[in-house]
């Protein structure tokens, strides 16, 4: 016999007041709900009214999470109707507030798995318990050492995995019953959390090195064993681990790192969009990346890959990149370069006074970049003087201040348009309002990996991919071309989030096609579109 309360408390099957009379009879729900039977449309209207009654973004998020915890179909039905309004609430930037207040706000675990470095023998059991028999096809895992640009947030960081997964389903149609958010709790170096009596994670410093990598190995092996058809998405790992982990597993299992690769392909798509507006060639650009960490190096790698696809040798392509980090412009002899930075380090002999290039202003003056990307976590680093200097040597300077959340952005879109008298081609990490300047309305693209990863991940799952390789990532970057009308004054360099469901579908099909064509599908698939259509989940009862 069915237990009414168990059904009503299971968000994957609960329909609330939309259970029909026949269902109520069959499932022993008679009397466990008010008598009226509502349609999903009526439920959505009522829920949206409640959403609108909340004033603060965090209150709106808490309301939406309650709905998510109660009835996942209704949640995604509503999110599908209001995707532009809900994205910044369930995802970046408001997810940042919920991470900072995770302990205070904690109500329930939202079906996440919590892996503890102090309990390595229970890695498999933890995943199994959290999945509770569900057929998992998508795992988003974070160890939260580098949450957005906010640093180490320990177990609180699980909310980024939950938020990323919400976007996967809303944008691309991944079945929400087939996803698993995972927190790897390797400790935290965030003293505020360690001192907080309410902190819910392991109360010790972060563990690095052998013990850490053994845990990651164990985790990856358990995911492969329990969920062999799944895609493993890594998110917000620290600079010293993210690239190592990707390097180790990318040829062996279906995996990708969103901060390295997702960001790389959205920036490439944005640069291609910008060049479509300016009618310039990518091989004529000089790229300066400010903040050469996980994202900054990933972006440079993806752009370099594109230059090589256009026929340049590796040595020629590398000449187009200038990486600036805390030390200033990175040279071959700069101390403490990461392996990724080393690839792009310049030779001192290229510059007359290389020892003076120790900050962004000096580097911009010496390099005269045509494309400048910010992934530095340094708010306001793209100053008026620096932007004016850049714009003095570039007809249509391409400027993407990408650090998240909002308070960390290197510049505001509005300022960049003003300082360059409308010449800058701008994209930001979080949503930005249109900018009106001299009678033209400039639309600001959002260069956030959320534009790409839902389509990439969903396409890879639908095609039963063995791996996600460079060929597939490149195909995904190019899939956004042609959506924006580049001839309109003030056109954006990337398509608007309002169209994310449409273009995520296109990306998914392109990705599935690439996997099938390369013989990288685990199944004998031939039709990418059919495979994507078959895998797609839609929120309806
Ligand atoms: N828009 C997007 O899609 C997107 C994607 C990924 C990351 N990001 C943002 O990019 C930022 C960096 O993320 P990450 O994962 O690469 O972090 P990270 O820690 O790996 O890299 C940050 C880099 O910035 C450097 N840095 C710090 N202070 C600096 C300074 N004063 N001058 C120059 N460089 C400095 C650090 O040394 C490090 O190399 C974050 O704010 C993150 O939110 C945005
Ligand atoms: O989470 C985001 O908004 C994008 C990106 O993954 C980041 O770390 O900033
Ligand atoms: Mn991230």
UniProtKB/TrEMBL annotation:
Its cofactor is NAD(+); Mn(2+); Mg(2+). InterPro entries: Aminoacid_DH-like_N_sf, Malic_enzyme_CS, Malic_N_dom, Malic_N_dom_sf, Malic_NAD-bd, Malic_OxRdtase, Malolactic_enz, NAD(P)-bd_dom_sf. The active site is at 91 (proton donor), 164 (proton donor). It catalyses: (S)-malate + H(+) = (S)-lactate + CO2. Keywords: Lyase, Manganese, Metal-binding, NAD. GO terms for molecular function: malic enzyme activity; malolactic enzyme activity; manganese ion binding; NAD binding; oxidoreductase activity, acting on the CH-OH group of donors, NAD or NADP as acceptor. A divalent metal cation binds at residues 235-236, 259. (S)-malate binds at residues 404, 448. It comes from the Bacteria. One of its GO terms (cellular component) is cytosol. Residues 260-516 form the Malic enzyme NAD-binding domain. Divalent metal cations. Prefers magnesium or manganese. SUPFAM superfamilies: Aminoacid dehydrogenase-like, N-terminal domain, NAD(P)-binding Rossmann-fold domains. Its EC number is 4.1.1.101. Residues 68-250 form the Malic enzyme N-terminal domain. One of its GO terms (biological process) is malate metabolic process. It is an enzyme of class 4 (lyase). Belongs to the malic enzymes family. Homodimer. This is Malolactic enzyme. It comes from Liquorilactobacillus ghanensis DSM 18630. The lineage of its organism: Bacteria, Bacillati, Bacillota, Bacilli, Lactobacillales.
């Amino acid at each position: 016999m069915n237990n009414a309360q168990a059904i009503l408390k299971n968000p994957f099957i609960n329909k609330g007041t939309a259970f029909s009379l026949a269902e109520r009879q069959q499932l022993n729900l008679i009397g466990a709900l008010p008598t009226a039977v509502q349609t999903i449309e009526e439920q959505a209207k009522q829920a949206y009214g409640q959403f609108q009654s909340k004033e603060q973004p965090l209150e709106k998020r808490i309301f939406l999470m309650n709905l998510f915890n109660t009835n996942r179909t209704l949640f995604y039905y509503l999110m599908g109707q209001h995707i532009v309004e809900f994205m910044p609430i369930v995802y970046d930037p408001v997810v940042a507030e919920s991470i900072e207040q995770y302990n205070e706000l904690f109500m329930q675990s939202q079906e996440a798995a919590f892996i503890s470095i102090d309990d390595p023998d229970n890695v498999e059991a933890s995943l199994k318990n959290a999945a509770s028999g569900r057929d998992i096809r998508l795992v988003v895992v974070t160890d939260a050492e580098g949450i957005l640009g906010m640093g180490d947030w320990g177990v609180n960081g699980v909310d980024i995995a939950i938020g990323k997964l919400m976007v996967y389903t809303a944008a691309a149609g991944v079945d929400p019953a087939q996803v698993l958010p995972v927190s790897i709790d390797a400790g935290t170096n965030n003293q505020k959390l360690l001192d907080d009596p309410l902190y819910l994670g392991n109360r010790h410093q972060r563990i690095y090195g052998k013990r850490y990598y053994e845990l990651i190995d164990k985790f990856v092996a358990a995911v492969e064993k329990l969920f062999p058809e799944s895609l493993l998405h890594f998110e917000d790992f620290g600079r010293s681990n993210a690239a190592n982990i990707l390097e180790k597993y990318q040829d062996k299992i279906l995996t990708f790192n969103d901060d390295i690769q997702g960001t790389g392909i959205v920036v490439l798509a944005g640069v291609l969009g910008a060049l479509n507006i300016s009618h310039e060639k990518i091989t004529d650009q000089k790229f300066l990346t400010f903040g050469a960490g996980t994202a900054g190096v990933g972006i440079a790698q993806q752009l370099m890959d594109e230059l090589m696809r256009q026929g340049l040798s590796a040595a020629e392509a590398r000449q187009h990149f200038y990486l600036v980090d805390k030390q200033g412009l990175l040279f071959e002899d700069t101390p403490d370069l990461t392996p990724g930075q080393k690839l792009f380090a310049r030779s001192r002999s290229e510059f007359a006074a290389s020892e003076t290039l120790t900050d962004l202003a000096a580097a911009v003056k010496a390099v005269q970049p045509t494309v400048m990307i910010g992934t530095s976590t340094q708010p306001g680093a793209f100053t008026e003087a620096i932007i004016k200097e850049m714009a003095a040597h570039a007809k249509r300077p391409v400027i993407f201040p990408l650090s998240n959340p909002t308070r960390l952005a290197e510049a505001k879109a509005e300022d960049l348009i003003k300082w360059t008298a409308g010449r800058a081609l701008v994209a930001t990490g979080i949503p930005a309002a249109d900018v009106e300047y001299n009678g033209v309305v400039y639309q600001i693209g959002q260069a956030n990996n959320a534009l790409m990863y839902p389509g990439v991940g969903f396409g890879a799952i639908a095609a039963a991919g063995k791996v996600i390789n460079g060929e597939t990532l490149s195909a995904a970057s190019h899939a956004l071309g042609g959506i924006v009308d580049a001839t309109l004054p003030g056109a954006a360099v990337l398509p608007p989030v309002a169209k994310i469901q449409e273009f995520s579908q296109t990306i998914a099909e392109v990705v599935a096609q690439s996997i099938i064509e390369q013989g990288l599908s685990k199944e004998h698939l031939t039709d990418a579109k059919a495979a994507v259509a078959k895998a797609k989940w839609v929120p309806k009862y």
